[in-house]
Write a structure and sequence with these properties.
710 residues; alpha+beta; DNA primase, PRIM domain; 6-stranded mixed sheet; 4-stranded antiparallel sheet; 23 helices; elongated
Length: 710
Amino acid sequence: MSNESKRCADVADIKVSMFSDAFSGVPRTVTIGAVIAEIRGHTNRLHILHLRKLHEAWKAVCPALDSKKSDEAKAYDSAKKELPPFCVSGTARDRTTPLVHSGLLQIDIDHCRDRMADLIRKLKDDTHVAFGFVSPGGDGLKLGLSIDGDRHAESFQAAQAYFKTRYQVAIDPAVKDRLRLCFVSHDPDAWLRQDSEPLPIIEEAPKMPRSGEVFAMVLPSQAVTISESARAIFTRIEPTRSLFWRGGALVECVEADGITSLAPVKPDGFRSRVERVGPLMAWRSDRDGEPTLSPAIMSADTAKAIMATVEAREILPPIASVLRCPFMIETSTGEVAILGGGYHPENGGTFVMQGDIPPRVPIDEAVKSLHWLIEEVDFQSPGDKARALAGFITPALRMGGFLTKPIPIDVAEADQSQSGKGYRHTLVSSLYNEQPYIVTARAGGVGSFDESLAQALIAGRPFICLDNLRGKLNSQTLESLLTAPGSFPARVPHHGEILIDPKVFILQLSSNGMESTVDLAYRSSISRIRKRPGFNYRDTLGELQARQPYFLGCVFSVIAEWISFGKPRTKDYRHDFREWCQILDWICREILGCGPLMDGHESAQQRVANPGLSWLRLVALALESDGRLGESLIASELVELSGVHGIEIPGDPKGDGESIKQVGRLCARIFKESGIVEIDGFSVTRKIVDQDRGDGRGLMESKRYVFAKL
């Protein structure tokens, strides 16, 4: 192999042959650097513009471009052949006699317009891709792949597998021809990597007996160590994107009832996964005591040992979450990119199961459509509506890595059951084509809340919903998760501990009367709604599900608009999670046209953190439903009302007369500072009046409570 074909640090100086057009037989020698400079410049600009118009005309009569017999196809082909082509793989004496190999292989990726921005972003970071540019027709990419020039044919086969597994694209098989011509184009953004590295060719030895095409992996035996065996096995598995590394454990994507989650791989399962990618062999001694390779079965102990090696962590791709929709990121150059189906290393590793790129939606239309989703909801205040809209935007910001610090639980609270609090959460998750992982609040032990939460974290699905919560939520695990600065440990029975990334999750909680600790209340975003009795709601969810990519495109348009302004924030400090608060406050005010995000939120947080205020709110709602607002009530009547409506009195010992005393104690604390309390649209006034004792012993002090609508 020549020295030139081995060089990787001076790609611009590599020499190739270029012809004046497709019909010329006498080439001239140029450098790759000169070719890329011509493609970036204006030499071929007008010709390429004309060529792309011909290409669009061809596509109009044959969308699949699978027929080259039409007049449009012939016109395009004829015009393209007027462009100067070059041989990516080196120099040549003529069109049939190769000379010196360049150490590069031409790669053609056709018909990738919908994924082009995403592919270009990734290919620019690929150390094996020496250069790249948009094809003359405008819907494909032309690349130069660094290879071992002495193994051109083997490198082409390796390239086919590499692009299929890494980018989920098929390369044009015609590029295996060393003298394949590559036509120049016009692309100001054509790139050149000076430090490209040759694509490795995995050595596939030894072979299985009686099979010249299927290659074996050698298990630990004789001179083959566990680490060597692990490296061979994981190198074979890595391109398949079937096993991943996640916080100390091997995991895989599993599907049940149409829902894909991440699950730890057990040793027995690992044995079968390895067998899928090739046969296993081990060194044994034959009858003469000589070492020989023989077919083998991996033992459970060997599986455990291989799974625990450093090679598993080093070779397998990392993963943090699995999504059912594309996600938006900002590239290192400040451009917006939407990542579709397949594996992406961003945000700790993300696997997108469904990759239909959403349409671009004009910002005015996007804002109007997002408001339409909740226009039938009766929010308690403008601030509650702003927080509800923020609930649609927050997941995309989270998935794209725009929110790097903790975000609050999205709390949907209603004044009555069947008010649509859970429906709003369903709208949010459906916009992202997701089904939330439902976590129920149970007592400790097997199946407890913390265990159910750990299972949800291990599953790696983005939405975790604490559905229809009742009673007080007091989970140190949940509170720690919300503020974890780095990896968070999750453990379930029969599995080792897995370190998960909290930044890939969106937590939702629905309740008719949330009651929590003070810390948890101040780590929530509470959006309150009121029931609309008898209202004939439209099928908003059905419309959203039918047009899910469109509504996702609306969210992406809002985020792109925010990015275009320089990702600004407000200076609102009224929430503990300031990054989330200030970014969403700016988006809600300046793009979505809402009021301040945190208006009315502090009082809701204080009430949620105070069991007495939460009970008083439910009493007010019960009185409103009974048409009894304005009545003057004593403690015993409040106890009776609570019993009728199934409202639990905090700390109630439920003894004879004790419930009345407990209500008195609650109210004493609530009205300690003032004789009137305002709570979620109601005022409660405590009046102390003198009342005849009825036993001839004079007057006694009586406390009465009057509930009114603000």
